[in-house]
Amino acid sequence: MHKPFQWGWLSSAIVWIGLLWLSFPAQAAPFGNLDDNFVMNAVDRAENAVVQVNVSRTLGGEVPTALRPFLGNPQAAPGRVLRGLGSGFVINKVGQILTNAHVVDSADTVTVTFQDGRVLEGKVLGKDPVTDVAVIKVETDNLPTVTLGDSDQVRQGQWAIAIGNPLGLQETVTVGVISGTERSSVDIGVPDKRVGFLQTDAAINPGNSGGPLLNAQGEVIGINTAIIQGTQGLGFAIPINTAKTIAEQLIATGAATHPYIGVQLVALDPNVKNYVNQLPNSRLKVEQDQGILVVQVGQGTPAAKAGLRAGDVIEMINDQPVQQVKMIQQQVDEAGIHGRLNVQVRRKDRTVAIAISPEQMPTMEPR
Predict the structure, then answer these.
(1) Could you tell me which residues come within 8 angstroms of residue 46 by beta carbon, excluding any fewer than 6 positions away?
(2) Catalytically annotated residues
(3) Fold of 147-253
(4) Which of 262, 276, 291, 344 could form a disulfide with 298 if both were Cys (CB 3.0 to 4.6 A apart)?
(5) pTM of structure
(6) Minimal CA–CA distance to 305: which of 355, 266, 265, 256?
(7) Same CATH fold, 259-360 and 147-253?
(8) Which of 132, 54, 115 is nearest to 87 (CA)?
């Protein structure tokens, strides 16, 4: 004989489930108001401060490679005016705007188009080809501004929202995630840059260059750049903390300093040690599995002048042990141009002390 079905516990469970559902924030509910999502909220916080940067340049000969994808027909005849555009964003109410250096490179005139339809003449306060950051100034005040975030806190997998003018399509928004951080400029094919790029799968195309990459809160975490050719499904951005440091120098002096010593380095571990020692036709043998291995020393560089050699293992700089390559770059930046780095290296079976004085990093000719 079957017992009659008891509704009491089930009705109580339904009530509790309903109460739990109501306790979730609106954005967490999978069937919440789809017309009011975090992407829209983030865009609303930033879009009024995003601008279109219009440039023109009178052709007098060959067009620099950096301009070709962004500024029109590279086969245009000399004497014609080359026009193009990029993106940017306002960082303060006095009219200072961040964008990419390659957007304004060699431009004769720069104008800035705002979301409300205003078009103002822009002046390039400075541009830094090493980090691809530039600052433009327009003569106005009380402009809408973005909120700058902290790119040091960016983590792989978090949301990323790009705003810009790709291919001239104004106010375009694309969404993805941060798919990588600290991407070396060498690894992604732009060895003349000195940036640990943010990588995203949010679409970034020519015209997006100079626009903001936002987090889910609408804060700027990077400057989008489209200088990396041939990528599919990947975009890159200059971390905003790097851009802020460079922008401060550009605003103050019109130029940025980049101390360098001229070496290629790799952090040692047992796998790297075994790989190096097993390379065919190599005279290089590494005994240590900790420290920073000097892979190459550029001719005429500060490191070469000081006597650093390929195969040396850097153990300490200024009495501080080093285990990561970025720690050495931090020491170089802190020492500054014409400063002093006291470097302790292991060279085969002996310890060697070397003093290196960083110099200004030379810029490469446009490709």
Answers:
(1) 89, 146, 147, 163, 212, 214, 218, 220
(2) 102, 132, 209
(3) Thrombin, subunit H (2.40.10)
(4) 262
(5) 0.74
(6) 355
(7) no
(8) 54
What kind of architecture, by CATH, is found in domain 45-138? Beta Barrel (2.40)
CATH superfamily for domain 259-360: PDZ domain (2.30.42.10)
- What does the pLDDT look like over 221-261, one tens digit per residue? 999 986 666 666 788 999 999 999 999 999 999 999 899 99
Selection from 234, 214, 236, 215 nearest residue 224 by Cα: 236
- CA atoms of 271 and 244, how far apart (whole Å): 37
Confidence of residue 79 (pLDDT cuts 50, 70, 90): low
Amino acid at 273: K
Domain definitions of the chain by residue range: 45-138, 147-253, 259-360
Distance of CA 241 to the CA centre of its chain: 9
Q: Which of 310, 320, 307, 287 is nearest to 353 (CA)?
A: 307
Q: 258-287 burial, b if ≥16 CB within 10 A, otherwise e?
A: bbbbbbebebbeeeebeebeeeeeeeeebe
Contact assessment for residue 136 and residue 99, using Cβ atoms and an 8 Å cutoff: yes
Report residue 205 as tokens: 């195309």
Which residues share a beta bridge with 162? 174, 213
Backbone phi, psi, residue 119, to 5°? -125, 120
Query: What is the chain's Cα-based Rg?
Result: 26
* 201 contact partners, CB below 8 Å, separation of at least 6: 160, 176, 177, 179, 233, 234, 235
Torsion-angle region of residue 38: left (phi > 0), alpha (psi -120 to 50) or beta? alpha
CA distance 355 to 22: 65
